[in-house]
Amino acid sequence: MKEFRTQVAIVGAGPAGLLLGHILHLQGIESVILEHRSREYVEKRVRAGVIEFGIANLLEDVGAGGRMRREGLVHRGIEIRYDHSAHRIALSELADGRTYTVYGQQEVVKDLIALRLEQGAALYFEAEVSSIEDVTTNAPIVRASMDGEDVRVRADFVAGCDGSYGASHRTIPGEVLRRYERVYPFSWLGILAQAAPATEELIYGRHENGFVLYSMRSASISRLYLGVRPEDTLEQWSDDRIWDELTERLSTDERPEVNRGPILERGITAMRSVVIEPMRYGRLFLAGDAAHIVPPTGAKGMNLALADVRVLAEAFDAYYSKNDEVLLDAYSAKCLERVWRAEEFSNYMTQMLHPSEDDAFENGVQRARLRQATQNREAATVLSRNYVDLNSL
Ligand code: RFL
Ligand code: PHB
What we know:
393 residues, alpha/beta, FAD/NAD(P)-binding domain, six-stranded mixed beta sheet, 21 strands, binds 8-demethyl-8-dimethylamino-flavin-adenine-dinucleotide
């Protein structure tokens, strides 16, 4: 059995765990990060792509944003397509000049791993945490297995940054934990393709056949999504069927456009909203997907994860530098306020853009919402501020 002793044990090396470890290092607080998967796996996992204005600034402020600033694509608007016509929402104009940045989550993860290793700080891959114990005492313990060997980490605090399938939130007893959940009757089929994006800005579309999203990662890589049935499998979606459906759903009376190319990666993701309350139990603090899931339609998941750990790092700083626990006590309530706002926005975007197969009333409401979001300045302003910088509203 291997044993470590640290100040903060961090479970999970996704964006939340890695950024927390990095900020703690800057603050002179020691941490150990335990990650279930290999380095290669987490660096290749294709997920989010949109970084909010304030979160891009956060990455830059803590010295983790250099490559994002050089290689990320700065955007000032989105297009929304419905009823075969295209409408641009001038996000930056409506949100005090703020922009958003398109930069892959796995690039953020790569940048943060490189920083962590440069600092010589502890980060263990292929270390699966099986349990977190004694969190209601001052000496919690994290148990993991690494290369077939049992590992025990003793810490002052545990940060559960292990995503929605992790071990952390299961540590909170049933009588304390409240779980709010909504499962949507559709999934997203996402592809990454070697093809120049045919659009400069992201396009969200509602078509009779279902949802569609045109996004990108660079001048030569496109990222596209189709709303599909929850029971659909990748075998049912040949390359030709995917491209034909993307083309059809994106076509407008003026502009049929989609550039095709080899598909480099594909996956189907179920859509759900989850909130776990409270985000703290004793000396265990949950952050990111471990505490909340949003459907990706609002592009908020990674942003929320990074926003949580900013609050948590500040609270640890107050504890270690001034022995002040006020911010630790306020952590859960402070984060949950933003989390519920992001849940509301993600739910709004999701409900507006995914047509129902059998509910004509719902479809009428969706089209009225779309007209309002694209044609009414006040409605477009709320959408814009939520999209580029949730904290600004
Ligand atoms: P992560 O990234 O899931 O990281 C958790 C890490 O914990 C590890 N782990 C464990 N480690 C040790 N022991 C255990 N027992 C463990 N169990 C799990 C896992 O291996 C993993 O490495 O959570 P984190 O850090 O909270 O980050 C959250 C984001 O990953 C997530 O919210 C976003 O990807 C959501 N999301 C989007 N967010 C955005 O902000 N903008 C977007 O444009 C956006 N698009 C998306 C998305 C998510 C998508 N999918 C695939 C769900 C698009 C899609 C399709
Ligand atoms: C992406 O580029 O992967 C992306 C963009 C916007 C979303 C979700 C995902 O809402």
